[in-house]
Amino acid sequence: MIPDSPIGPGIGEGLPGIGSGLPGDGRRTRRPTAPPQYVLTEDTPVYVISVAAELSGLHPQTLRQYDRLGLVSPDRTAGRGRRYSARDIQQLREVQRLSQDEGINLAGIKRIIELENQVTALQSRIGELVDSLEGATSALQQREAAVHASYRRDLVPYQPPAQSSALVVWRPKR
């Protein structure tokens, strides 16, 4: 029986090339798979203009115009062809919604997109500053703890005497 067989137990038993897994018996061994070199994210440009137009519900010429106006900026191939990402498709749909449902002109939409990008960048910067502040606070607390730990415990702190109304009698030595 092949324990890791993708086709099920018992299949392939007794066939040439499949054996006990010992060297020289002809059995194929699994090679460690290399990690994928290319990971798809929503920012990966994969869609050509015709597919992007179909996914967004717009005409390809409209996509070209939006690119010229700077509303959506797809990546370019070596041959200058446009490649759209999932984020670009989402932005195309948002431009269409703002234009058709809200009645905003393209210049207004461009300004809205610029302001949204600015807000996103500022939020990212705030996150970086908060992380930096937390790191500095932690370092300061560690230094303060180190200073407190270095105090000598055999010393008694000086405390000035309290104001007293006690009467002291002085007697000279004879």
Please sum up the structure shown.
This protein has 174 residues and is an all-alpha fold.
How would you explain this protein's 3D organization?
This protein is mainly alpha-helical. It is 44% helix and 2% strand. It has a two-stranded antiparallel ribbon. Helix 1 packs across helix 3 (86-100). Mean pLDDT is 81; it is low at 1-22.
Order of helices and strands: HHEEHH
Tell me the span between the first and last alpha carbons.
Answer: 114 Å
Strand adjacency order, main sheet: 1-2
Arithmetic mean of pLDDT: 81
Which stretches of 5+ consecutive residues score pLDDT under 50? 1-22
Helix content: 40-55%
What amount of the residues lies in strands? Answer: under 5%
Q: How would you sum up the major sheet?
A: 2 strands, antiparallel
* Computed CA radius of gyration, to the nearest angstrom: 37 Å
List how many beta strands DSSP finds: 2
What is the overall number of helices? Answer: 4
Which structural class best describes the helix and strand composition? mainly alpha
Shape: elongated
